[in-house]
Write a structure and sequence with these properties.
The chain is of the alpha/beta class. It has a single domain, classed as Nucleotidyltransferase, domain 5, CATH 3.30.420.10. 46% of the residues lie in helices and 20% in strands. Helix 1 (54-71) runs parallel beside helix 2 (89-109), helix 3 crosses helix 5 and helix 4 (133-143) packs across helix 5 (153-169). The longest helix is centred in the middle third of the chain and has 21 residues, at 89-109. The chain starts with 14 loop residues before the first strand and ends with a helix.
Length: 178
């Protein structure tokens, strides 16, 4: 069996799934372009129980994402890059497991994955790589024409990641920063 590498083509991503990975709570958001507007199709969280074993928790993430892939014709998945302090290596290892399952779900769905550092997402969304969460939430609200700032933070972050994926995949970064 051969290995297939799927890569995004510039200008080809019209439906993007943004993922804020977490072992306990994984935020996700699906956006698409409808004419000149970006529209939020679906957003939410995939939760696992802390009392479950690691394999059960990873299975929950995989099943949840598989359902999202089945419901939407996703062209690209934008995934937040792993960020961890060196004083918490166990957290980084556990997050690595979650990100691995998330990447596997995308690969099984035939969806290319782009990875973005949190500071890159913040820079694209606000022009400031150190922007606070409240500023990111407000930027997401404005860019998706939402009635209120998105909650919880995991969902707001996933929306920002999907928007970042859209702007960078479609070479419209200047529009994002305008």
């Amino acid at each position: 069996m051969g290995t297939q590498v799927v890569t995004a083509r510039p200008g080809s991503a019209s439906c993007i799934l943004g993922i804020d990975p977490g072992l306990n709570t994984t935020g996700y958001a699906v956006i698409s372009r409808e004419g000149p507007r970006l529209c939020l199709r679906e957003a939410g969280v995939i939760k696992s129980r802390r009392s479950d074993t690691l394999p059960e928790r990873l299975r929950e993430i995989h099943v949840g994402l598989s359902e999202v892939f089945e419901a939407h014709a996703v062209d690209l998945m934008a995934l937040e890059q792993l960020f961890s302090h060196y004083d918490r290596p166990r957290t980084a290892i556990l997050m690595g497991h979650a990100r691995g399952v998330i990447c596997l779900a995308a690969a099984l769905a035939g969806v290319p994955v782009e990875h973005y550092e949190p500071t890159r997402v913040k820079k694209v969304m606000t022009g400031n790589g150190r922007a606070p969460k409240s500023q990111i939430q407000l930027a997401v609200k404005m860019q998706l024409n939402l009635q209120s700032v998105p909650e919880p933070a995991d969902v707001a972050d996933a929306m920002a990641i999907s928007l970042c994926g859209h702007y960078l995949a479609n070479n419209t970064i200047d529009q994002a920063l305008a």
